[in-house]
């Protein structure tokens, strides 16, 4: 019988017995191979050699599973804390927490009007800011009579660049503003390619969606800092989750608002100021008048009043939220989709909406 020391090749193993080889530099890893005629025996021998690696992989799998379970638990708790618990408990006294007056821009329709009504329902006096005097008068009178609060209004066209702000600043100088809601924004009316947008539309988007939030915040923030309390709510959009073609300027302006809100909060949280970025999805308003499906209330599209009721209950609890639990799930999904998938979906759906706008029949 040949042994491992017989011959230059180390010899051959005896039938049915193991063959062992030591490393050139002395004792080391011993590899054991069995001359077997059954796969199960071979698998057992290989498993013994790889047991360390199997244990390591098991540890990695366990760590991943625990991490995902903790993440799921935290997400569930966050949803309950934001969208369920506030509805079960009593309403927060917004006047005591932030101040007597709230300023709401673009407040004659949609989310702005509904948010103003919800604030008034909680005893906050309202200052409405929009460009249509007749609508302002009607909404102001309605809120005052319905909720028994003081209301005022300021006529301002935010698309005029720097023009409206001196008058707004003068009108607000003697008011103790506790809450500012930056809701004004510009949407082209339908999804469209960037080169098809007019220069006026581009400037209007910059002035209304970006400049207005900056200037209104700059006007009211010093007073909030002085009294060491206040809240600023900026209405962003689910489109800030990913780059969205065919609504490029609108989505980019919402990304700006989201970034602006989060950064300002870090700057002034220590001074008692709470800044919130709201990122809603579709809400049943007249934002897209030619498409009845987008304007219709549905399971995923609440009315403006329903949305405002949920969103205002998150004030002071989360600096970045969709404001409505169903939209929270949609936003989480949107953030996790691959960018190419989101972009292709936006191009497809935006193309349909564009065709509906250009060819209604």
TrEMBL record:
InterPro entries the UniProt entry points to: 17-beta-HSD3-like, NAD(P)-bd_dom_sf, Sc_DH/Rdtase_CS, SDR_fam
Pfam families: adh_short (PF00106)
A GO cellular component entry from the record: mitochondrion
Cross-referenced CDD domains: 17beta-HSD1_like_SDR_c (cd05356)
SUPFAM superfamilies: NAD(P)-binding Rossmann-fold domains (SSF51735)
Source organism, top-level taxon: Eukaryota
UniProt-annotated location(s): Mitochondrion
Keyword Nuclease: no
Keywords of the record: Mitochondrion, NADP, Oxidoreductase
GO molecular function, a single term: oxidoreductase activity
Region (Disordered): 1-24
Family membership noted in the UniProt record: Belongs to the short-chain dehydrogenases/reductases (SDR) family. 17-beta-HSD 3 subfamily.
Protein's name in the database: Inactive hydroxysteroid dehydrogenase-like protein 1 isoform X1
């Amino acid at each position: 019988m040949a042994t491992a020391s017989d011959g230059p090749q180390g010899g051959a193993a005896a039938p049915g017995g193991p063959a062992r080889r030591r490393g050139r530099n002395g004792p080391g890893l011993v590899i054991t191979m069995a001359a077997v005629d059954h796969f199960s025996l071979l698998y057992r021998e290989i498993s013994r050699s790889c047991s360390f690696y199997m244990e390591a992989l098991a540890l990695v799998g366990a760590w991943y599973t625990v991490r995902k379970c903790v993440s799921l638990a935290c997400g569930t708790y966050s949803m309950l804390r934001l969208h369920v618990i506030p509805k079960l408990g009593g309403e927060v006294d917004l006047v005591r927490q932030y101040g007597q007056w709230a300023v709401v821009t673009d407040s004659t329709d949609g989310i702005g009007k509904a948010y103003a009504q919800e604030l008034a329902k909680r005893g906050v006096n309202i200052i409405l800011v929009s460009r249509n005097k007749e609508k302002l008068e009607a909404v102001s009178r309605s809120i005052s009579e319905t909720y028994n609060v003081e209301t005022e209004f300021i006529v301002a066209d935010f698309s005029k660049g720097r023009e409206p702000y001196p008058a707004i600043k003068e009108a607000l100088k003697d008011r103790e503003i506790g809450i500012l809601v930056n809701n004004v924004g510009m949407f082209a009316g339908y999804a469209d390619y960037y080169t098809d947008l007019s220069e006026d539309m581009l400037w209007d988007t910059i002035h209304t969606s970006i400049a207005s939030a900056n200037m209104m915040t700059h006007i009211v923030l010093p007073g909030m800092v002085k009294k060491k309390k206040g809240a600023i709510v900026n209405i962003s959009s689910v489109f800030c989750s990913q780059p969205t073609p065919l609504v490029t300027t609108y989505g980019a302006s919402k990304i700006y608002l989201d970034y602006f809100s989060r950064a300002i909060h870090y700057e002034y949280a220590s001074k008692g100021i709470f800044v919130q970025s709201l990122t809603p999805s579709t809400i049943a308003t007249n934002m897209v008048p030619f498409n009845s499906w987008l304007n219709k209330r549905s399971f995923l599209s609440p009315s403006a009043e329903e949305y405002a009721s949920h969103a205002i209950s998150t004030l002071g609890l989360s600096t970045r939220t969709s404001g409505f639990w169903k939209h929270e799930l949609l936003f989480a999904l949107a953030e996790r989709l691959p960018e190419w998938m989101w972009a292709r979906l936006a191009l497809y759906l935006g193309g349909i909406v564009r065709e509906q706008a250009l060819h209604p029949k």
